[in-house]
Each structure stands twice: as structure tokens, then as C-alpha cells.
Write a structure and sequence with these properties.
Elements: E1 5-9, H1 14-26, E2 31-36, H2 42-50, E3 54-57, H3 63-73, E4 77-80, H4 96-120, E5 125-129, H5 133-136, E6 143-146, H6 158-171, E7 180-186, E8 188-190, H7 198-203, E9 208-209, E10 231-233, E11 239-240, E12 242-244, H8 245-266, E13 280-283, E14 289-290, H9 291-301, E15 310-312, H10 314-331, H11 339-346, E16 349-351, H12 354-360, H13 368-377, E17 386-387
Parallel strand pairs: 1-2, 1-4, 2-3, 4-5, 5-7, 6-16, 7-13, 8-12, 9-17, 10-15
Antiparallel strand pairs: 11-14
Helix pairs in contact: 1-8, 3-4, 4-6, 9-13, 10-11
């Protein structure tokens, strides 16, 4: 494959940095430039310099700055992974301020990157990182093994709404361009450095005790002091999709390779059935499992097993979420528990990976068990603080 000029937006982020690594591994012959709002850390800067990766500090909300950067680089490939993910209670928030921030970055930012790509005239392939939440953020509906024929536009949460709007910009015939484009929809991404999924799961664990403290733990002696990990909502059989971060990154490399091969072979003519051009593809680990099982596996890797399991019936959980929303509306204070959080905890959301296998040749290299082990093994910050006690 000839040398390409590859721009990766958001290349300093959790997924973006994994995408950079995946490209460097698969195609060291290309030249890479990261566009990110943040400057690299000293460690990242040294690594970037070692790998001869360029870095331009750009806020994708600023059209002029994005165009200037893209014109200087003249890329042949753009992987647009920059975006913002609302975390914690913000995910279910109805705040107009949060909605504006999410749409400014995820929608208007995508519009700006597309405009720069069209204007520069050198781009042959454009891959946009969307999310399975374009479907999954419809909290009132279960989605079982859905494929790409599913209609989007029903998301109730700002993140899924913003990703669906950005998808339409990338793939709509009303957005004319001279390059081939596709969209990838990874499911919930986890891995080393994960900022969204694993930290709140680990935070439910009780503080650990010193290894030499042999006294019974209070958390197993008194029901009212049971750890939060003991509480489970509903039957805990609803399946979820997860994607290990390097698997998601691999999918981006395969998508770019597919688009470049189609562009070079067909000269921008009508894409073949095995072309990713004009398509949105779900990316998963092809191993859906109950969210509770994912939590149990993560806790076990961190040395914690809930002493008991207290099942909160689904009806009771929904009432609790409704009450939390009512109190939030009256006080202006948002809680971790909400009607949206409960709906998501009780819902079933997983997609078929068949199209990604057939079109991209994608298969997850890291399975769920190994992915969870890697994700928690290198992150001591997940481990709860040790309680210092007197052993006498």
C-alpha cells in the first residue's frame, strides 16, 4: 500500500490513542498527524516524536482552525474519532447546557471536519467514529442482535442523538464530497485507561483492609453495611455489548484499508457489496453478556466478591428512579440514580457483528475475559483505598 497522509482527530483520547497505535502497528509506512484539543503529555510527546507522529492542537468547534490544519497537512485519510461522552449523571441529564456542549462538539465539530476534508481536495477516505448508542439510547426499547438495517433517530439521550445527527452528516447524499466515507458504531468500549465504564464499577467496591488484619469485615457482618456491589437491579439476565478498545481500533484500520482499496480499484465509482463506503457498521466483541456478569468479572479481577446479592425487583427499581428524578426536578440536584439509569440497567442492547466480519474482515483479537483482565490489571487507581485498622 502506498504511503498515505493520515489525520486522526481526538488521537490523544482513550480510543483515539488506541487507533493511533493500531495504525502504527499495521501500517508504519504511513505518516500520521493527531488533531486534538489537548497538548500531549511529556510521555506522549516523547512517544509521538519517536514514532514521527505529528500533533496539531485544534478545537474542532473552530472551523477556521480545523481548515487551516487540514490544509497544511493535505491528508489522504481522515479518521474522525474526536468527541465528547457525557459521563455519570450527565449521561441522563436533560440540561440544555449539557446538550449544547455535546452537540457543539459531536455534531458541529463533525460538520467542520467534513467541510475541511471537502475543501482541501486531497482526501480519499473518511472514517467517522459513531456509537451503538444511536440505537441503544432509545431506553424504552430492547434491541436484540440488531443489524444495520435498524432505523436510527429514536435516541432519548443527548449522546445517542448527537451521534445519530453526525452520522447523517457523514453519510447523507445531501453532504456532497469527493471521498469515500463510512461510519463505525462501537458498543461500550473498555480497556486500560478507560475513563467511563470501569471507574464507576470499581467505585462500588468497599475499601479494602490491610492484608494482616484478620478480623471479620463489618461489610459482611451487618446487613445495613453491605457493600453497594451486593445490590442488583432486576433479574440481571439482560444482555449488553462491550468492545475491547484495541478491537475497536483494529476496526478503524480495516475500514480505512477497505475504503482506500475501493477508491483505488474503482476510481470512486459505485461501491461493491463488500465496500464499506456509505455504510454504518456495528463493532462489538461478538460476545454479549449480562452487565451484572461484566461487573462481577471486573470485581473478581480486583479481588472482590460481593458477600451476598440483593435483588431489587424491576418495578421497585423503576419507582426509585422516578422518585430520584422528581427530587432532582424540585431541588435542581442530579443524582447517580435516575429513571434513565434504571431503564438502561434493565434493558437489553446488543448488535450483530456479521456485517463488520463480511465487509471489513473484522474479528475481535482480544476476548472478553482477557480484555477485562488487561483493563483492570494495569490500573491500580481502580483498587479501593486500604483501611488502616488496629490489629491488636
Amino acid at each position: 500500500m502506498p504511503q498515505e497522509q493520515v489525520v486522526i482527530t481526538g488521537g490523544r483520547g482513550f480510543l483515539g490513542s488506541a487507533i493511533v497505535d493500531a495504525f502504527l502497528e499495521a501500517h508504519p509506512e504511513h505518516h500520521y498527524t493527531i488533531l486534538d484539543i489537548q497538548q500531549p503529555s511529556l510521555e506522549q510527546a516523547a512517544r509521538i516524536e519517536e514514532k514521527d507522529v505529528g500533533h496539531v492542537q485544534v478545537d474542532i468547534r473552530e472551523l477556521g482552525a480545523v481548515k487551516d490544519a487540514v490544509h497544511r497537512i493535505a491528508p489522504t485519510v481522515i479518521v474522525h474519532s474526536a468527541g465528547v461522552v457525557p459521563v455519570g449523571s450527565k449521561r441522563y441529564s436533560k440540561s440544555e447546557a449539557i446538550k449544547k456542549e455535546v452537540f457543539d462538539i459531536n455534531v458541529d465539530g463533525t460538520r467542520n471536519v467534513l467541510a475541511a476534508a471537502r475543501e482541501v481536495g486531497t482526501v480519499k477516505a473518511f472514517v467517522y467514529t459513531s456509537s451503538s448508542t444511536v440505537v441503544g439510547d432509545d431506553l424504552d426499547t430492547d434491541y436484540c442482535n440488531v443489524d444495520e438495517s435498524i432505523q436510527i433517530g429514536k435516541a432519548q439521550l443527548f449522546y445517542g442523538q448527537s451521534k445519530a445527527a453526525a452520522e447523517r452528516l457523514v453519510l447523507s447524499p445531501a453532504t456532497p464530497h469527493d471521498f469515500l466515507a463510512c461510519v463505525l458504531r462501537p458498543s461500550v468500549i473498555f480497556g486500560p485507561g478507560d475513563p467511563n465504564l470501569l471507574p464507576p464499577i470499581a467505585a462500588l467496591m468497599p475499601p479494602s483492609r490491610r492484608p494482616d488484619d484478620r478480623r471479620p469485615s463489618l461489610s459482611t457482618s451487618f446487613p445495613f453495611q453491605l457493600p453497594l456491589t451486593a445490590v442488583a437491579l432486576g433479574p440481571c439476565t439482560n444482555l449488553y455489548d462491550f468492545t475491547y478498545v484495541t478491537n475497536a481500533a483494529d476496526a478503524h484500520v480495516l475500514a480505512v484499508r477497505n475504503l482506500l482499496e475501493c477508491a483505488n480499484d474503482s476510481g470512486m465509482s459505485s461501491p461493491s457489496p463488500l465496500s464499506a463506503a456509505g455504510r454504518a457498521l456495528f463493532i462489538t466483541n461478538d460476545a454479549p453478556l449480562p452487565f451484572r456478569d461484566f461487573c462481577r468479572a471486573a470485581w473478581a479481577e480486583l479481588g472482590h466478591v460481593p458477600p451476598v446479592e440483593i435483588r431489587v425487583p424491576a418495578v421497585a427499581a423503576r419507582i426509585m428512579g422516578f422518585c430520584a428524578d422528581a427530587v432532582s426536578a424540585l431541588t435542581g440536584v442530579e443524582f447517580a440514580l435516575s429513571a434513565g439509569a434504571v431503564k438502561e440497567a434493565l434493558g437489553t442492547k446488543y448488535a450483530s457483528g456479521q456485517a463488520a466480519r463480511e465487509v471489513l474482515g473484522y474479528t475481535p483479537r482480544v476476548n472478553m475475559r482477557e480484555g477485562i483482565r488487561r483493563a483492570v490489571d494495569v490500573q491500580p487507581r481502580f483498587r479501593p483505598p486500604i483501611i488502616q485498622t488496629n490489629s491488636s
